[in-house]
Amino acid sequence: MRFKLFFYCLLCIMIVSCKTDTQKVEIKSTVDEKQSKTITKAEIENLKYNDYGLSADAKKALNDWQKYQELNTQIEYLKMGDLSFFKSDLTLISTFINDFRTEIPKAVSTNEINSRITALETKMLKLNSLLLLDNIPKNEQLKGLKEVFVAFSNLNLQINKNLEFEANNISKPQ
Questions:
Q1: Could you give the C-alpha distances from 40 to 14, 46, 132, in angstroms and in order?
Q2: Helix (H, G, I), strand (E, B), or coil: what is residue 167?
């Protein structure tokens, strides 16, 4: 009788101990998955694209455009690996972009620049959806990051070109 009781106790202990080991393995694998999905600053720095900044004239023209300054700051945070703004609620990003459009200075309010803003808006909303979904591979998220960087860089380039063209005062031949 004692042998059976000892045997059952030993069996219960083995079952319980085996179960905790598998739980530890499962917890460890989910932690590893989360770490493998986390985008690092080094991975962002490895993205290859042409990064255009604003010229001195463009900086003067955009100095009072508060929403541009905020966007520039958020892009810089994004380059450092801080994805919080782009992971935020969709309404926050949409509201920001609407305010961005309404506060555009007259000096840079052209069709070309508005089309670059639309492209940037599309890429920002796409990045937001890529970052919020759990089943999106890291390489797709990095591709979305690169698209936002390229769209912002193209906006800067178009602003530079537009202000440079206006500064040239080219007269039409008669």
A1: 41, 10, 16
A2: helix
CA 144 to chain centre: 7
Same domain, 17 and 53: no
Residue 31 binned pLDDT confidence (cut-offs 50, 70, 90): very low
Burial profile 124-156: b = 16 or more Cβ within 10 angstroms, e = fewer:
bbebbebbeeeeeeeeebbebbbbbbbbbbbbb
What pLDDT digit, counting tens, does each position of 108-165 carry? 889 999 999 999 999 999 999 999 988 999 999 999 999 999 999 999 999 999 988 8
pTM of the predicted model as reported, rounded to 2 decimal places: 0.75
68 and 26 housed in the same domain: no
Amino acid code (one letter) for 37: K
Which domain range does residue 61 map to? 40-167
